[in-house]
Structure to design on (294 residues):
């Protein structure tokens, strides 16, 4: 069975919101709003199409065998700017994809974790954050109302990282502010971003620094890590792929334990200084510090 909110039909409470389509999809119109001051949980057997979901707490969206989709239409064949999710934290999990390559999921969240199976070319994770963003742990607990009106707790357990787990799914993560990439606790494996197989990765901090406290990984896809401010690979945070690596920022700094590893070409470009920990590749390396030193 499907759950549809058409036209201006909304769902609102200061308590938790629990929406489930056990055999079908959840669909909001572009003008439908789910609003709360507590956790919100959406679970569908197929797709979840988002109008606007907004809360002061966390949101969990699960599309078991489908995708998490922005209901808003493209604008001049490009991504729209209407927000889809406003929350403290977002936990997104899809059997296929999250957002689309030219219609990203538009968010204003503090912390993000996203996982998609990434079936063939239809999967991947595409998230466009309005301001600053942390990749880390998010869990959600709601109160399920029974036929006797009594409530029982239902929890979507802690999920970490941004990962495509199959199907060569791409990962595109952009933020209007700074980005901090942390190793979450589920699982704690020193990885924050992981694209399956030939999945490409773009991590772009348009309005600030990019701090990687954990690894950015692809099997053999191209990886671009770009920041308007400084870019730091701290501790044992590595950048690993068999594809090419492209790093560009105002300044680039690797810790002594950080490794940039590839079997293709590697390019580092900084407006000021580049501090190198270790770079290993069977291809070529280009390092440019426009007004500073290497």
């Amino acid at each position: 069975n499907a759950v549809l909110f058409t036209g201006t039909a909304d769902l609102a409470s200061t308590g938790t919101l629990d929406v489930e389509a056990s055999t079908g999809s959840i669909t909001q119109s572009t003008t439908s709003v789910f609003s709360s001051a507590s956790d919100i949980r959406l679970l569908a057997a197929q797709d979840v199409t988002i109008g606007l979901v907004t809360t002061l707490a966390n949101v969990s969206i699960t599309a078991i065998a489908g995708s998490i989709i922005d209901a808003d239409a493209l604008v001049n064949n490009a991504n729209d700017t209407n927000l889809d999710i406003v929350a403290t934290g977002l936990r997104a999990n899809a059997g296929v994809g999250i957002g689309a390559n030219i219609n990203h999921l538009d968010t204003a969240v503090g912390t993000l974790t996203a996982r998609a199976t990434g079936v063939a070319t239809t999967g991947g994770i595409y998230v466009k954050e309005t301001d600053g963003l942390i990749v880390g742990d998010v869990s959600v607990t709601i109160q399920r109302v029974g036929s006797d009106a009594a409530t029982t707790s239902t929890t979507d357990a802690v999920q970490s990282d941004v990962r495509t787990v199959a199907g060569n799914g791409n990962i595109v993560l952009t933020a209007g502010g700074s980005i901090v990439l942390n190793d979450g606790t589920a699982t704690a494996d020193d990885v924050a971003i992981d694209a399956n197989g030939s999945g490409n990765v773009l991590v772009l901090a348009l309005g600030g620094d990019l701090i990687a406290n954990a690894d950015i990984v692809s099997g053999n896809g191209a990886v671009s890590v770009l920041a308007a401010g400084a870019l730091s690979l701290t501790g044992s945070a590595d950048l690993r792929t068999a594809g090419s690596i492209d790093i560009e920022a105002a300044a680039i700094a690797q810790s002594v334990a950080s490794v940039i590893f590839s079997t293709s070409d590697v390019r580092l470009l900084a407006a000021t200084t580049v501090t190198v920990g270790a770079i290993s590749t069977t291809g070529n390396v280009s390092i440019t510090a426009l007004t500073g030193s290497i």
In short: The mean pLDDT is 96. The two ends are 60 Å apart (CA to CA). DSSP finds no helices and 34 strands in the chain. The first strand starts at residue 3 and ends at 5.
